Amino acid sequence: MAARKRWRRYIPDDEISVRAFLHLIGRLFYYVGLHSEYFLLNFGRGARAAVLALWHGVCWMLALGANILRPFFAAVWEDLRAPWRQMRSGLRNIRQVVREEREAGGSPAGKGLAYFFRGVLAYKHLILHGLAYLLPAAALGVLLVTVDGVLSSTFALRVEFRGEFVGFIANESVYDAAHADILDRIQNVDTGEDWKARPEYTLTIVDQAALYSQGELTDRIIETSSAEFREATGVYVNTEFIGVTADSAALTQALEALKEPLYEGHENDDSWRVEFQQNVELKPGLYFTSTIITLDDLLARLHGTAPVELSDGNILVGWDMLGVQAVQNVTRTVETAAEPQVINDPELEWGREVVEQEASPGLEEVNEDVVYIDGQEVQRIQTREPTVLVEAVPQITRYGTYNPYGGTAGDPATGEFTWPVPDYKGISRWASRYHRGADITARYGTTIVAADNGVVEVATDARGTAWWTYGKFVKIDHGNGFATVYAHCSELLVQQGEYVVKGQPIARVGSTGYSTGNHCHFEIQVNGQWTDTRRYVMP
Ligand SMILES: [Zn+2]
């Protein structure tokens, strides 16, 4: 993979000369060799393991056969020892000859040498015999030592980057990881530039300690690439990139100094903090050197005195992005109320309400960040869900839905009327020449029900109208030529346009309008003309 890329690099674009061609052939052999070596290295490591296993097997078999082969080994041992024994006895004899010759006053060296060569000639078969064993064993030993040494040595790649030596690594994957790491750390890559670089590799053998880890290699590459990118701090406002400076520590100081005045008087207040109004973010990392500007230039952009090109291509200028605000964290308790609940009760008379449970307020602990700009509170932000200290209790009311006449909204009139104030039969005045209905005396607040199914034609307090004498009243159109009126009510329970069912509560007894006491003025109309109620319904 790496080789393919490098080949492209080594073919000159402008000239194909014989020299370049030969160079190419040379590189081809070099890479074939490099990869062969790699292959052999791995093959050799496998083979060594196999040979070791085999050797253990052989040792075991040798031990097994030792007893059977003992006579053979004894003969071998004898063959190996024989020359030495002969040499020892020969040397003893030579010393004897030399001593005797010296005592006789002759030439001891000459006699000794002559005796030695005679001995060698006489026993040369023994020497050859011994060598026949020794030479192959020595050769095998040398081979094993060499192979073991080669396999144990550390093969490494010497990395050269942009013509500069960087270090030794165990294999290409270390570089690939370092490269990916650097790409990962390069910030703001979307501004256009990208970083692609392949190193030069040379296979070599080095000491294990000389190998670089991926982290060390990353650091070295960054060092050697400082012309391209370097460690710096970028500033983002509301995720928009504003600029980057290498003066990271001074940048942090300058930003902190802007917040300093708002801490005055709150130095020991843990609940008080100062922050930028905008989301100002510092991102340390690797940045392309070409994008790095001075701290002053960056601050000018941030204060809006120098233009900034935004990612969408617009130019931003004249807006101080470094406005600060103070935030105070406060905890307080607030009273709460629970949503009232109404339960329909089909066994309770329609319209009756029974309070089942009284409401009681709850208490919550609320934690808020109170934001101040120029000393003015501008916002309160709840920092977390409130803590409930006392649970609020809701009012629970049972609402009666029992209707003795059954029926549902929209039913046509039955044509028969029910008495509109069921429990009260007392009549203070019947219809007469001067009075159009029946006045049913009843206690204040007593429920008045619809005399038959129909639609509410009027539900009004009648103030300021010709009907003011009726006070609060309801008129129901029954759709069959009949209409009924219920007047002087204290409260109306229905609205104009609503369908009502026979027996449904529609109002409560009162004394509104022209009235001197609590009663329900009940009136029946036939085709728009009032009539005597007694003709149609009696209590
Ligand atoms: Zn009346």
From TrEMBL:
It comes from the Bacteria. InterPro entries: Cell_wall_metabolism_enzyme, Dup_hybrid_motif, G5_dom, M23ase_b-sheet_dom. The keyword Protein transport does not apply. Keywords: Membrane, Signal, Transmembrane, Transmembrane helix. The keyword Membrane applies. Coiled coil: none annotated. GO terms for molecular function: metalloendopeptidase activity. Pfam families: G5, Peptidase_M23. The chain crosses the membrane at residues 21-41, 53-77, 126-147. Residues 321-403 form the G5 domain. This is Peptidoglycan DD-metalloendopeptidase family protein.
